Input
Amino acid sequence: MSEVMQRILALWEIDQSLHKLRGMLSDLRAEEARLLARLEAEDQAWEERKKRHQELRHLANAKALEVDETDDRIRAYQKKLDHDIIPYKEMEYLKEQVEFLRARLEELEEEALGLMDEVEADAERLVEEEKQHQERRRGLEEELERIRARQEKLTAEAEELSGRRQEALAALPQNWREHYERLHETIPDPVAPVENGACGGCHLRISDPLMERVREGREVVICENCSRFLYLGWR
Ligand SMILES: [Zn+2]
Output
């Protein structure tokens, strides 16, 4: 094989490695995006959970306030009944109100206690759930870190390979360099082996004189049909 052809093959090898690396980097970026979305969903779910607890707490507080207000009203009515001189009709009305409010107060107190119990039980569950949330979060963060470290490593490798690619390109005669770059822009494989008398790229048979030139390996040979660089394959 000619020296130039060897250089073209070396360049082609670098390009294949670069292509593979870029594919891996793109997969890693997609994985990173998926993890970030999961992290966001995790945080959002936790915020909603805390909000539900706060709502329960507000409900319990409102109920406790209602108990106090009802109690105050009973005391105020009772005070009026005990100390003021009021018309009979109003007195009857106030007595009725006090009776009604006392019954209501009992109900309210029961509801308030029930809610308080619920708040306490939920607060205990919340402590446990926060631990689980933090654990899941840490797991996701660690995975993200691993992926980012891998990205960094592969990016450095790709940069190093790009440098080597520039050198490999510069080592080619200008006409072949331009030919390679033109092919590389339009097809994934600018270099193909000759297999069973056919070009490994376009799979068309190549002429006998061309086959002979590939066999001799004294010069750079390109496919008559697809212009790919040709080298002798195993068969
Ligand atoms: Zn071809």
User: Anything to note?
Assistant: Residues 189 and 201 are 7 Å apart (CA to CA). The longest strand covers residues 191-195. The mean pLDDT is 96.
